[in-house]
Amino acid sequence: MSNAGQNIKVRLLLAEDDENLGSLLQEYLKARNFEADWVKDGEKAFRAFEKNHYDLCILDVMMPLKDGFTLASEIRMVDSEMPVIFLTAKSMKEDVLEGFTRGADDYITKPFSMEELIFRIEAILRRIKGGGEGINNCKNIGKYEFDSQKQTLIIGEKIQNLTTKETELLKLLCNNKNRILERNYALKAIWFDDNYFNARSMDVYITKLRKYLKEDPSVQIINVHGKGYKLIVD
Q1: I need a surface site. Which of 45, 86, 97, 144 has the fewest CB within 10 A?
Q2: In total, how many domains does the chain have?
Q3: Residues 16, 123: one domain?
Q4: How many angstroms separate the CA atoms of 105 and 122, rounded?
Q5: Which residues pair with 160 in a beta bridge?
């Protein structure tokens, strides 16, 4: 899905302190028909977020005044469903895992191609607009009500807002309820690559989904050694 040709432009917040990369990214995003506001530190980024409406945020992890993780946490306090892509140095495994723990929708490691960034942005926007791959065959998970369009998991009066990746992973588990969801299939369907970083980040998401589903003992996500995961609903 290309943004070109759409009447309403998607507006992005780009927080990147590197002058060359920030300028290049902004120009490229505008050339691809996105609106892109570029700021050079975390504090300016949060002020811009409070003042304007954005469809997605692209945040460098290492920034002056306020790092990307702190900024993402503050953004999510204002809008729990705001999609976030982190930009991180390739050598920083901890950054990747921390990013997903903080609820990132995606991350991209430097150096990266501009086309890859566009691909990641458009994949997230497709999911948000309800055009993600596959249908959701699972409205109810035990005592929980799962709405993949609204990205919510509800039990009783408690509403848990889900990130885009949490929603996609739970949807895949649902569509394979009481059957094995193969690990590599899930990685390629959601993360587009079954590399080490993505595999570790998926483990983080499985742990979070288990926590969200713990209030109904009839529901569990189990590891199937060497194969993947299984959502078991009695």
Answers
A1: 97
A2: 2
A3: yes
A4: 12
A5: 153
Structural contact between residues 129 and 221, judged by C-beta atoms closer than 8 angstroms = no
Residue 78, φ and ψ in degrees, nearest 5: -85, -45
Q: Is residue 5 part of a domain?
A: no
DSSP state of 10: P
- Measured from the Cβ of residue 221, the count of other Cβ atoms closer than 10 Å reads 17
Note whether 51 and 109 are same-domain residues.
yes
Structural domain containing residue 81:
11-128
Residues 28, 79 within the same domain: yes
Q: How far apart are CA 122 and CA 30, in angstroms?
A: 14
For residue 51 the two structure tokens come to 């003042």
Report the CATH number that the domain containing residue 100 is assigned in CATH.
Answer: 3.40.50.2300
Which residue in this structure is represented by tokens 């490229």? 28
Are 111 and 154 in a shared domain?
no
Distance CA 209, CA 94 (A): 21
What does the alpha-carbon distance between residue 74 and residue 202 come to, in Å, rounded to a whole number?
A: 23
